Amino acid sequence: MNMLKMPWLVLWGALFSASNTLATGVDVGQVQKQTTNWTAIAMFVGFIAITLAITKWAAKKTRTAADFYTAGSGLSGFQNGLAIAGDYMSAASFLGISGLVFASGFDGLIFSIGWLVGWPVLTFLMAERLRNLGRFTFADVAGYRFSQTPIRTFAACGSLVVVLFYMIAQMVGAGQLIKLLFGLDYFVAVISVGGLMMSYVLFGGMTATTWVQIIKAVLLLIGASFMAFAVLWQFHFSPEALFAKAVEVHAKKDAIMAPGGLIKDPVSAVSVGMALMFGTAGLPHILMRFFTVPSAKEARKSVAWATTWIGYFYILTFIIGFGAIVLLTQDPVAYFVEGDLAKGLQGGGNMAAVHLANAVGGNVFLGFISAVAFATILAVVSGLTLSGASAVAHDLYATVIKKGEADSWAELRVSKITTLCLGVIAILLGIAFEKQNVAFMVMLAFAVACSANFPVLFMSVLWKSCTTRGAVTGGFVGLILSVTLTILSPAVWEKALGYPEGSAWFPYASPALFSMTAAFVTIWLVSLTDRSPQAQRERALFDAQQIRSETGLGAGTTTSH
Fold it and tell me: Which parts of the chain span the membrane according to its record (predicted)?
């Protein structure tokens, strides 16, 4: 197979760029089966064999709900930091950001900086509190002093909506990748991915999912490091020389070193920035990771290590993007449509990193990068499934339905049944959405995460006057508004639903500025006007919550919530 013509990777990069603002309307249904790349398949099979062996080992260690959700809270800060980085450093951002840098130069850095700046600010603020107050899910934290039934119901709704839309996009992308690599029919590919994902989660729980994530993160860092090293080696490790050469050969010349090429509308810029910074802090499968370490100290270490790896990774993507500008333009026949620079890269701009992999490492390295991309999908889907299962089993079944009376075995059984159901649903929806544009689903996931989950988590932990009534009302306002505005935005209304250009009811690509603000204002307003006896009790409990969240006194023991 000529991997240089692999259009799925174009989708993958575009998908996550689009998740924030640049929905490109890629139609995944256009992907065609290719001849088989045996190098990529051999590396993929090797990865599967290793991870299944890990799953078998993890299955022996997974006997309780705590083992299943949090790996028994036995991970070290370094291990968990690497796993968090693995969740964060998707192949999507790797391909998408390097593609943006290739197309627009310096301006592509806005996405690297947006994600990176949001990461340490929020996690240094929330990580310790999450570990000290929570047990399995972010609802443990958000609902620490609140009435359990309404806050758990909201948290489960928010988590499941995020998981659902994120998972559909992952399944469609994974199916297309296997279709390309193996030459299998699409539905066979999706069923295969769903089966593998369920195996990881059902038998290995968080332990297996974490190690799959760690392996993927290490492979991705090795691959990206090799590419950046190979690029800089040609310029005697002088970034200045690399940038100067890029300005010389790029069609936009000096403009690639100036900002303003990607986002021109200031409202969109602010809204995109909010989605970039706060979206991840509301993703349930990311928040779960802070419960896998034994103490707040290890949670802080997790953040430190994750920030280190993530920062290093995004620097690499910047070098890779500029390296692609220089090295690929030296051989237009091999990498550009009809050998014409003006017609763009074969497969589109997001193929920059893939083309560069071939340019610096040949077919073997290209196969390696392809296998890493697939490993990323499996790891992310497994994490999503686990967070969805915990929302149903822990928040809805154990706390809302059984009022905290369910034993660990029963909760674990519900978790595994939920995993099976989510796996089947993911497979069915993945098949059903084969020919649909799935970019808007990722947009929905981020929009809901930053507009619903994050405001409730933030206000409940840091604001004394927040009440159950305010948190639940504001959370649902953010949830409903983010979904509605995304559907009415040009990315969905015009590009996905096919209405005429200019007919979108909501003119901006990301609703975060409006929906997240509305959620915060609603929480504040409703909580202030809540004079009920329950609200008074909840406010009185804030001091005890604050002491525990900041000191860890009482953390690590079974909680009453």
Answer: 39-59, 80-103, 109-127, 154-174, 186-205, 217-235, 267-291, 303-328, 364-393, 414-433, 439-463, 470-493, 505-529
Backbone angles phi, psi at 508, to 5 degrees: -105, 150
DSSP-assigned letters across all residues of 508-534: SS--HHHHHHHHHHHHHHHHHT--SHH
Per-residue three-class SS string for 447-513? HHHHHHHHHHHHHHHHCCCCCHHHHHHHHHHHHHHHHHHHHCCHHHHCCCCCCCCCCCCCCCCCCHH
Report how far Cα 356 is from the mean position of its chain's Cα atoms: 24
pLDDT exceeding 70 applies to what percent of the chain?
A: 83
Q: Which amino acid is at 314?
A: Y
Is 5 domain-assigned? no
Q: Which domain holds residue 390?
A: 45-438
Structure confidence by residue, pLDDT tens digits, 405-456: 777 788 888 888 888 888 888 888 888 777 665 555 666 777 888 899 999 9
Domain-embedded: residue 393: yes
Cα 14 → chain centroid: 14
> CB of 375 within 8 A of CB of 92?
no
Q: Which long-range contacts (CB under 8 A, 24 or more apart) does 540-544 make?
A: 541/145, 542/145, 542/464, 544/145
Find where tokens 């699409």 sit: 186
Q: Does residue 270 lie in a domain region?
A: yes
Q: Token digits for 228?
A: 């950046």
Give the integer Cα–Cα distance in Å for 332 and 334: 5
pLDDT band at 473 (very low <50, low <70, confident <90, very high): very high
Maximum pairwise Cα distance, the chain: 74
**Most confident stretch, 175-179, 347-351, 493-497:** 493-497
CB neighbour list of residue 140: distance below 8 Å, 6 or more residues apart: 133, 134, 559, 561
Using an 8 Å Cβ cutoff, are 347 and 4 in contact?
Answer: yes
Burial 208-241 (b: 16+ CB within 10 A, else e): bbbbbbbbbbebbbebbebbbebbbeebeeeeee
CA distances from 248 to 108, 123, 316, 324, 366 (A): 18, 40, 21, 13, 27
To 5 degrees, how large is the angle CA 173–CA 179–CA 184?
A: 145
Establish if 15 belongs to a structural domain.
no
Cβ atoms < 10 Å from Cβ of 4: 18
How many structural domains are present in the chain? 1
Q: Where are the alpha helices (DSSP H) in 200-259?
A: 205-233, 239-249
CA gyration radius, the chain:
23
Going by C-alpha positions, the residue among 172, 182, 170 that lies closest to residue 48 is: 182
Task: Please give the Cα distance from 332 to 311 (Å, whole number).
Answer: 32
Residue 387, Cβ neighbours under 10 Å: how many?
28
Residue-wise pLDDT tens digits, 518-537: 999 999 999 999 999 999 99
Reported pTM:
0.79
Q: Supply the CATH number for residue 309's domain.
A: 1.20.1730.10
Residue with tokens 């993929």: 44
Instruction: Of 45, 54, 391, give the one whose Cα is nearest residue 203.
Output: 54
* Rounded (5°) CA angle 18-12-492: 35
pLDDT over 70 (residue 400)? yes
Residue whose structure tokens are 């909501």: 506
